[in-house]
Amino acid sequence: MEQPLSINNTRLPVELLGDVFHRLVEDDDNEVADFKLDNILLVCKIWRDAALSFTDLWSGLYICLDRRLGQDEHYWLRYTKTRLKRAGPTQLLGIHFTFNYPNRWAYAPSMKGSSHFQQLIYTLTGPQGVTAARWRSFEYHAPSDGGSSIALRLFNFPTPHLRDLHVISVHLDSLFPYTPRLTNVTLSDCSPPCLPFIKTVKILDLLVGNRGRRPVFLYLCDASSVTEFKLTCWPDFIVAPHCVLQSLVEFKFTGRLAIQSLERFAAPNLRRLTLLVDSGSSYPAFAQCTGVNFERLEYFHFGWPHRIEDASIREYLDAAQILLKKLSQLQTLSFERNSIAELALKLLVDKDADLFPAPPREGHLSLMLDGASCPIGYGSSRRQSIDEFRQMADLDVEKSWVILYRKCKSSLDF
User: Where in this chain does the record put each F-box domain (predicted)?
Assistant: First the structure.
């Protein structure tokens, strides 16, 4: 007698089971037969058994505490406990936690849901932080009112496996006592903390909002492992104390630079630079940074993010030239938008500007805009190469300075 085929459900790929399910449904042509229903039920059971056996499917927790969505703290507490149980006691966890309503809902003892919220926080961290020790990544969004108090309870335990951290709107002096594997950090709208974990970080992304008239101090002296640093900072800032970012290869800045901002900043191995600044004075401010070897820069992307603070476009462009003249070994010149590209291309064929008169020692200089790329020519071939790039990037033919200024001014707020 033939033995029935035995299937090990725990080894069936979930993606394959899902594909089988959809094919069974599509084959019915909207006419469901009894035998097809049996097949569908069988696939559903196999899919459920297989899904429960894949613990990594349950390792991601997406918690959104927002009463407008109709899901209260009790719902998220049950959700979290179920996911953690199915993930098992050893599976590393990726957590996305959003807190979208006022602090009083969570902390006033008389408010409904308060005890469930406290239990939710306790469940996420575990007793003595045993669950926090399994965090692989954590993304935290919260309003400034109450968000820091919650974060203080969440981020108060050692997290030896945490690699990725993204925190929005938290004002703390420090975060996490122990994070030996943390490599990717994004802090948005946070007061710049003293980062005890920064020694291991390789990718650092800081967004600092308007904190008043006082300059913001960035303490980066321990950021020796950072290779990519993205900084968005609208108030004046100062890097202090003196720091040497020996491993830094790429620096992306959006905002406004002052002369004193980078006096104590050094990145001797910097290769890629992005400056999106609303004031032309930021370019000479960076050009005066003695801690950067400008002859090592290979890539430069520049322009304005939204608007220009200068009195005129010409003033902004003249300031940009000061930095461009120092980038003699540049291999890629990239533009943020069409308007800055058209202005820069006009400069490149202007004999008085005398930009990039000779090729770099290695490779060649290419222009780039929205995926279009073209090597630049030298001498008599310069104008022809610029015209080719205009055609590739879908830019207008060369215009006079007066027409270019008028065109840019019509699309900008000063």
Answer: 11-63
Where do we find the tokens 């950090």? 185
DSSP 236-282: -EEE-S-EE-TT--EEEEEE---TTTTTTEE-TT--EEEEEESSTTH
Other CB atoms within 10 A of residue 392 CB: 15
Task: Give CA angle at 350 (347, 351), nearest 5°.
Answer: 140
Q: What is the pTM of this model?
A: 0.84
| pLDDT single digits (tens) 67-95 | 666 667 888 999 999 999 999 999 999 99
Tell me how far apart the alpha carbons of residues 94 and 202 are, in angstroms, rounded to a whole number. Answer: 19
DSSP letter (8 states) at residue 4 = P
Per the structure block, which two tokens stand in for 64? Answer: 């959104």
Nearest-angstrom CA–CA distance, 376 and 125: 56
Q: Per-residue b/e over 115-139, b at no fewer than 16 CB within 10 Å?
A: ebbebbbebbbeeebebbbbbbbbb
Q: Nearest 5°: phi and psi at 225? A: -100, -5
Q: Given its phi and psi angles, is residue 129 left (phi above 0), alpha (psi -120 to 50 degrees) or beta?
A: left
The answer to whether 146 and 102 are in contact (CB under 8 A) is yes
Q: What are phi and psi of 366, to 5 degrees?
A: -120, 150
What are the Cα distances from residue 252, in Å, to 100, 231, 301? Answer: 30, 6, 9
Start-to-end CA span in the chain (Å): 87
Distance, in Å, from the CA atom of 178 to the CA atom of 75, rounded to the nearest integer, reads 31
The secondary structure element, H or E, covering residue 21 is helix 14-27
Both structure tokens of 316: 């902004």
pLDDT at 375 over 90: yes
pLDDT digits (tens, 9 = 90+) for 8-54: 444 555 566 666 666 655 555 555 555 566 776 777 777 777 777 78
Position 80: which residue type? T
Sorted by where each begins, the domain ranges of the chain are 9-51
* Rounded distance between C-alpha atoms, residue 229 and residue 252, angstroms: 6
Classify residue 93 as exposed, middle or buried by CB count within 10 Å of its CB (0-12, 13-18, 19+): buried
Least Cα distance to 322 among 299, 289, 363 occurs for: 289
The predicted-structure confidence for 126-174, as pLDDT tens digits, reads as follows 999 999 999 999 999 887 566 677 888 888 899 999 999 998 877 766 6
Exposed, middle or buried: residue 159 (CB in 10 Å: 0-12, 13-18, 19+)?
buried
DSSP 327: -
- pLDDT band (50, 70, 90) for residue 239: confident
